[in-house]
Amino acid sequence: MATLRDWMDKTDIDVFEAARAFGVSIYAVKKWLKKERTPRPAMQAKIKKVTKGNVTGDDWVPKE
Fold first, then answer.
1. What CATH number does residue 24 fall under?
2. pLDDT of 14-41, one tens digit each?
3. Buried-state track 11-33, b at ≥16 Cβ within 10 A, e below 16
């Protein structure tokens, strides 16, 4: 499993492309990347689908 940033780097996808793929604004993606916001469960499921399981709900849970 990878973080959203890891997945974007690995697939050479920028913030604009990620926003388009997830159906959100670039600002939402930027906030997720900065860990200022966490996607809602439905969006986490969409991100998991779009990333083919590389980014899952577990990736949004803060690690201690």
1. 1.10.260
2. 999 999 999 999 999 999 999 899 999 9
3. eebebeebbeebebeeebbeebe
Confirm if 43 and 22 have CB atoms less than 8 A apart.
Answer: yes
In total, how many domains does the chain have? 1
Q: Which domain holds residue 10?
A: 4-58
pLDDT band, very low/low/confident/very high, at 64 (cuts 50, 70, 90): low
State the Cα–Cα distance between residues 13 and 6, nearest whole angstrom. Answer: 10
What string of H, E and C letters represents the secondary structure of 13-46?
Answer: CCHHHHHHHHCCCHHHHHHHHCCCCCCCHHHHHH
